[in-house]
């Protein structure tokens, strides 16, 4: 039986198949723009972290000032948890949360959580090293892009999460900012234990800065095995802790009721990635600044939402409700009384 194949129809079907379109060319944003920083998140967001950062070998880059909003506002509640792998701090506010704008950010980034890394000796513990030197601990503060609504959703996007990493140096005396946290450790010694803490504004814990910090992109590998592209900010301003304070971290238990002696991640190679030195200002002899003798005052400001709606502020922030217009009116009344 002879089979007749319609070769013309087959040929026409092949010809009608659409050829794959060539990939769109990647346009590199102009250097000096914030978009240029975001571009490297696409290129280098997969590289491993943590790494060593240093003024040497970094690229000086000018950005607008980083602005801290609502860090002086008292939270409704603060919870501290021993997860078995780290100490985790979460807080809730009745209305608007603290957030960051400006700097290397194109839009608003909301505070999510705070956690710590430490080691078994005073010679190890920090995730990052600075000038090839490690420190006893590190505090990492996570922010996520507000348009993604949650940290879980933001982690799915290369531009979704920013982690600010504070190195914790050895200090002869105890750091009062950390004492507020560390004093609660005996109550969360067992893994998976959480307690409520005395609510305080996070400006009492976080050293705020608007310039003079390092920025790079790299991969975050979680305990669950997930991997995400994250932007890392390492300020030159550091916290400090006494020998006794660092020792309190090592008294916490892991999920197997053993002391959690170390939870820092291994240092990775920088490779060819970009490390940006954002808006350098202070003395650049060393990459980390000296421990200040007097704690710096808060540079946090109230957001427009709080300014327009003072009722949103908790009672503890009543001192912020002083209206200049009211003060002026009272002064005019006093002047009238005196003239009489």
UniProtKB/TrEMBL annotation:
InterPro entries: CA_dom, CA_dom_sf, Carbonic_anhydrase_a-class. Residues 1-24 are annotated as: Disordered. PANTHER family: CARBONIC ANHYDRASE, CARBONIC ANHYDRASE 14. It comes from the Eukaryota. Residues 34-279 form the Alpha-carbonic anhydrase domain. This is Alpha-carbonic anhydrase domain-containing protein. Belongs to the alpha-carbonic anhydrase family.
């Amino acid at each position: 039986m002879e089979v007749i194949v319609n070769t013309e129809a087959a040929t026409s079907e092949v010809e009608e198949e659409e050829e794959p379109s060539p990939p769109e060319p990647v346009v590199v944003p102009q250097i000096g723009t914030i978009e240029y920083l975001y571009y490297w998140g696409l290129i280098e967001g997969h590289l491993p972290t943590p790494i060593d950062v240093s003024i040497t070998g970094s690229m000086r880059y000018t950005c607008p000032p980083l602005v801290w909003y609502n860090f002086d506002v008292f939270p409704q509640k603060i919870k501290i948890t021993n997860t078995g792998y780290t100490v985790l701090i979460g807080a809730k506010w009745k209305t608007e949360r603290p957030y960051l704008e400006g700097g290397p950010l194109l839009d608003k980034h909301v505070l999510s959580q705070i956690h710590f890394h430490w080691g078994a000796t005073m010679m190890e513990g920090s995730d990052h090293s600075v000038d090839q030197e490690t420190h006893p601990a590190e505090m990492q503060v996570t922010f996520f892009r507000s348009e993604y609504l949650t940290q879980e959703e933001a982690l799915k996007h290369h531009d979704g999460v920013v982690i600010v990493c504070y190195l914790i140096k050895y200090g002869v005396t105890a750091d009062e900012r950390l004492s507020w946290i560390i004093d609660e450790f005996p109550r969360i010694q067992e893994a998976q234990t959480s307690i409520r803490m005395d609510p305080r504004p996070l400006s009492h814990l976080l050293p705020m800065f608007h310039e003079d910090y390092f920025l790079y992109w790299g991969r975050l590998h979680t305990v669950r095995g997930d991997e995400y592209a994250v932007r890392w900010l390492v300020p030159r301003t550091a916290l400090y802790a006494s020998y006794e304070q660092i020792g309190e971290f090592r008294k916490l238990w892991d999920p197997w009721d053993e002391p959690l002696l170390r939870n820092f991640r291994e240092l990775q190679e920088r490779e060819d990635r970009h490390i940006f030195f954002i808006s350098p200002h202070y003395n650049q002899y060393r990459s980390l600044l000296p421990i200040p003798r007097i704690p710096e005052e808060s540079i946090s400001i109230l957001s427009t939402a709080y300014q327009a709606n003072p009722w949103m502020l908790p009672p503890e922030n009543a001192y912020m409700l002083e209206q200049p217009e009211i003060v002026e009116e009272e002064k005019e009344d006093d002047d009238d009384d005196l003239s009489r």
